[in-house]
Amino acid sequence: MDDTRVVERTGWAPVRHFAERSVLGLIAVLAVGLGFGVLLLLVRFHWGPLQDLDRSVADGLNRWASGSETVVAVLQQISSAGGRGFMIPLVALLVLMLIIRRRPRPALYLVVTGLGAMILDPSLKALIGRVRPVVEVPVATAPGNSFPSGHALGSMVVYGMIVLVFLPAVRRRWRPFFIGAAAVIVAAIGFTRIALGVHFLSDVLAGWLLGVAWISATAYAFRMWRREAGHTDPHLTDGLEPEAGPDLRLAPAEGPVLPHPWAKAAEILVGWVFVFGLLYLVGYTVTRWTPGFDTGFVEWLQTFRTERLDKWSWAWSKAGDTHAILFISLIFCPLALALWRQWRPVLFLVLTMVGELTLFLCAAAAVGRPRPPVEQLDGQMPTSSFPSGHIAATMCLWAAIAIITMARIRQPWRWIFPALAVIMPLGVALSRMYRGMHHPTDMLGAAILTTAWLTVLWFTIRPNAHPASATEAASEAVAATDSDRLEPAR
User: Fold this and answer.
1) Could you report the per-residue pLDDT of 40-84, keeping only the tens digit for each?
2) Which of 6, 102, 270, 296 holds its CA 20 to 30 A away from the CA of 363?
């Protein structure tokens, strides 16, 4: 009798739990889909109470937001995290990281789910044809129709599927905070769309409901795919592919990033002060004693000015501004983590750019060198001429990337990075002098900053210490995990 009960319990319990989860999930998806359908009909047939609520909320938030330019700027920054210009590069970067980590199934899930959301949004907007709100004080504009909110739909889909895919990489006690953070981001983006006066409350609610329904449908299809491939159905709190956890963790087997971190921090601080002193000394010298060629070379470059060269110099100059440098850094750091599973090279690059920015700002403020006495195509700048921030940032970024990659890539094409470390700063330097913004000695200051600061970080961070050790250890950890998972079946 006892044996029969044991057999029944072990045989039917998993089936019962699966059936219960399936039924509850089906009910939840149907409820979400029904809610969206009802909301769509109410909007389509202009139901009075809903329209009154939409106008009341839109007008109230518009009065609150329009009273402060700072509030509007903050709302626009938060709203940009739900725009296509931010989310498409984010998803593309995550897909590339998953492919590098040899997880094509979740990568394909991100692609399919994201593309589906991009198709749903304009299709429904064209079908419903609802115009955007008309508020008393317009503080923002948006193209196209209003229902549903594309930002609300896109953010729910993108951040929701990121949670589902990367949940296995998060420790269990931190998973509620991970999910909560994604929920706060989605809610904040939806709120900003109403407060900026470009969507009604019902537009945002519809976007959220449609987003939940879409990621639920694609997650169910993914589970069916796993079942056909012979995998078990994981619990929702374990993510879409729990066995991918070791591969999804950024640096699973790396030891301490830096030994004796407080001592290293002191060394870096002392090095920063030394580099600043060197920059100030050189800047003071060239400001009080300006070589003849310093202004003459800039004036000579002005003789070549044409409309076409002005455009080319503008493009080269943009390659060294804050946005371009930050964009490249935000792409390189995640890819470096995905490829080599080490935080140390990422820390090296981050400290390189933070040090460059602070050294440039402090040195420029202390030296106070005026710009060249020629026509300046970029107008009045908030900082002084020495050293050049554009050139220094470009030098530091590409030199740091070259240092990191040359120690880890063995193929012949690795020489591309040292070449970029020469070509990019030269192009930016010529463009800045052509545009009348810097002297040649400002470029010298940028070169001194780059050389001295990278030398300090090279001897303190040691970015290339055992570059392959973390990757090998991570591979061994993954292999051990797979072995443990297969052990009961032997």
Assistant:
1) 777 777 788 888 888 888 888 888 888 778 888 888 889 988 888
2) 296
What do you get for the CA distance between the two ends of the chain, in Å? 30
- The pLDDT of residue 359 is 94
**Tokens of residue 341, six digits:** 């599973």
R_g of the chain computed on alpha carbons: 28
Q: Which helix (H) or strand (E) holds 220?
A: helix 201-228
pLDDT band at 468 (very low <50, low <70, confident <90, very high): low
Yes or no: say if 155 and 189 are a contact pair by the CB < 8 Å rule. Answer: yes
Q: Kindly state the helix (H) or strand (E) to which residue 79 belongs, with its residue range.
A: helix 69-80
| Helix (H), strand (E), coil (C) string for 35-48 | HHHHHHHHHHCCCH
Rounded CA gap, 88 and 144, in Å?
Answer: 19
* SS3 state at 304: coil
Decide if 336 contacts 401 (C-beta within 8 A).
Answer: no
The rounded distance, in Å, linking the Cα atoms of 369 and 386 is: 6
Spatial distance between the Cα atoms of 262 and 461, rounded to a whole number of angstroms? 12
pTM for the model stands at: 0.76
Structure-model confidence comparison of residues 225 and 408, the more confident one: 408
**Residues in Cβ contact with 115 at an 8 Å cutoff, skipping those fewer than 6 apart:** none
Spatial separation of the C-alpha atoms in residues 301 and 437, rounded to whole Å: 12
Angle between the N-to-C axes of helices 201-228 and 48-65, in degrees from 0 to 180, rounded to the nearest 10: 100
Residues 6+ apart with CB under 8 A from 218: 109, 112, 113, 116, 161
Q: What's the pLDDT tens digit per position in 338-386? A: 888 888 889 999 999 999 999 999 999 998 888 888 888 888 888 888 8
290: part of which helix (H) or strand (E)? Answer: none
DSSP 119-132: HHHHHHHHHH-PPP
The answer to whether the beta carbons of residues 110 and 98 sit under 8 Å apart is yes
The answer to whether residues 437 and 373 touch, using CB atoms and an 8 Å cutoff, is no
The 3-state DSSP class for residue 254 equals coil
In the predicted model, what is the mean pLDDT of residues 15-19?
Answer: 46
More confident residue, 381 or 326: 326
Can you tell me whether residue 439 is helix, strand or coil?
coil
Q: What are phi and psi of 289, to 5 degrees?
A: -130, 95
User: d(Cα 296, Cα 216) in Å, to the nearest integer?
Assistant: 66
**What pLDDT, on a 0 to 100 scale, did the predictor assign at position 83?**
87
Q: Long-range pairs for 410-419 at CB < 8 Å and ≥24 separation?
A: none
Cα–Cα distance measured from residue 459 to residue 253, given in angstroms and rounded to the nearest whole number: 24
- Indicate the length of the chain as a whole number: 490
Q: Give 83's contacts (C-beta < 8 A, 6+ positions apart).
A: 151, 154
Closest listed residue to residue 85, CA positions, set 152, 3, 151, 174: 151
